[in-house]
Amino acid sequence: MATSKGANTYNRQNWEDSDFPTLCQTCLGDNPYIRMMKDKYGMECKVCERPFTVFRWCPGARMRFKKTEVCQTCAKLRNICQTCLLDLEYGLPTQVRDAALKVHESMPKSDVNKEFYTQNMEREIANSDGTTAVGPYAGGGKSQNSHEMLMKLARTAPYYKRNRPHVCSFWVKGECKRGEECPYRHEKPTDPDDPLSDQNIRDRYYGINDPVAEKLMSRYSTLPKLEPPEDKSVCTLYVGNLGEDEITETDLRNYFYQFGELRAVSLVIRQQCAFIQFTTRAAAEEAVEKTFNKLVMHGRRLNIKWGKSPGQTADGGGNLVDTGPALPPCESLLCLCISVASSLFQLFLLLLASWTTSACTLLPWQVCPCRDHCLPLPLWRHWLLLQDVSKPDKCSHQFCISCFLQPFGCHPLPLG
Amino acid sequence: MPKVKRSRKPPPDGWELIEPTLDELDQKMREAETESHEGKRIVEALWPIFRIHHQRSRYIFDLFYKRKAISRELYDYCLKENIADKNLIAKWKKPGYENLCCLRCIQTRDTNFATNCVCRVPKTKLEEGKIVECVNCGCRGCSG
Questions:
Q1: Which residues form the C3H1-type domain (chain A) (predicted)?
Q2: Nearest Cβ partner for B131 among A35, A37, A180
Q3: What is the pLDDT of residues A136-159, one digit of tens each?
Q4: What is this structure's pTM?
């Protein structure tokens, strides 16, 4: 390996000089105003061993100073934070991420091969526009299923506890004389026999033998699953943790409508829960599968369970309105009306649109479309897609019926 | 340091009154100089020196400006003989610097972000319960 910059420039290994580090939210800390120290060629990268630009900063009050550990090329190749080596998107170890995305890449680990590989990759990064991934993750390689696993394991909020000072080694030996002033933590250290306390930065980078990843994978395999009840007539879901006045019946109706027709939605405000009854068992099962332990509404993680079967309601089923599968699907009637009305509107608007000569679909008497109070996607039926007939790919604005009937936000002027 | 006698002139009147205290401080300084560094952090080694230096300058400063116990001649003599640090005393006359611990703590050129030492931050501006012990001289806060 070249250890210094000599006069010979032929095929010389590049020393990395960067202006800004690649970091995750957690490592940056909670303070939006950060002062960083930049040290050009300050250290060698802990993976590729080339000198790189080290950044050092304090991620908030009572946190330890952090610095970048691997060079930016190495970080970009694996899409990880330069400091914590966790994935930038999900905050997960590379081993977990690769297992979920099913990316099998083999980065060379021996000296010369590694140099050659880094050189090639650096050239590729320089040639790319910086918005797409380079290297083993170029294709994306995401399948819906693996994505779900990542979403389940990923953190939703930054984990600032990771930035705390280390445990005071003097205190552990009982020799710390600094007392209150000691900037290190005076806490019981982790058990040295714990596999998590034996981590290696290179293994973490390459995603092999990572104890944290193994812990996460085992946690994923033992995640609780909700078993559908034996009684096939149960089509009701219990939704808990609604909070006070935060989630309305409309919200629930709008959300759960995507899985199938709803027969009834009953909200029990006093107990902050709701019961959602589907017309079919299949819809209910799909809803449970898609929402159990996943549904977050207005920042609250909702608690999903199966409703009790009619036989069980007597012993504490609560306000469950479960009247069996014989009821007519009342919801679908309404939908039918709406869709008929919507198609009429569509016809009418298409006519209008064909009259106008503007390139865009915005009719002359319309203000901006009501993007602000967009309804969630499952309600697409209630929406009209308005498009310029002559240039269908030019632009497409969505308007909702309710906007025309009871305009708020945007005011389509009267037609007169 | 009053080790080397620079002037042959006899000290002004009143010298015999302050001499015992100065000798005592001198003795303390000697002890601090010869003290072992065992078990101390690197930065901690110089803290007692800074403290005694501050104490000695403060003694002269107080005698002349606060208690008005010594004459102008004697005060000038102390400054000239480097018994008191005249640069430090010059700072003490400025508002906001009345209790300044040492000159290194206000030397902004020596820090990464051109800031003063943490001991220069007023107690009210510090976060609750934070205990400060500055690296330069071990000061625990010298600004209100």
A1: 162-189
A2: A180
A3: 676 554 545 557 778 778 887 899
A4: 0.64
- The answer to whether residue A218 scores a pLDDT higher than 50 is yes
Cβ-based contacts of A42 with chain B (< 8 Å)? none
**pLDDT, tens digit, for every residue of A53-83?**
999 999 988 899 999 999 999 998 888 999 9
Residue with tokens 């009050």: A61
Say yes or no to pLDDT of A207 above 70. yes
| Cβ-defined contacts of B27-33 (< 8 Å, 24+) | B28/B52, B29/B53, B29/B56
Q: At what angle do helices A94-101 and A211-221 cross, to 10 degrees?
A: 50
Phi, psi torsion values for B131, nearest 5 degrees: -105, 125
User: Side-chain half-sphere of A123: how many Cα atoms within 13 Å?
Assistant: 8
**Strand, coil or helix: what is A214?**
helix
Size of interface A-B (CB pairs under 8 A): 8
CB A254 within 8 A of CB A324: no
pLDDT score for A383: 37
**A236-306: which CATH architecture?**
2-Layer Sandwich (3.30)
- How far are the Cα atoms of A187, A389, B107 from residue B131, in angstroms, in the given order? 18, 71, 22
CB contact under 8 A, B39 and A61: no
**Measured distance CA(B35)–CA(A127) in Å, rounded:** 62
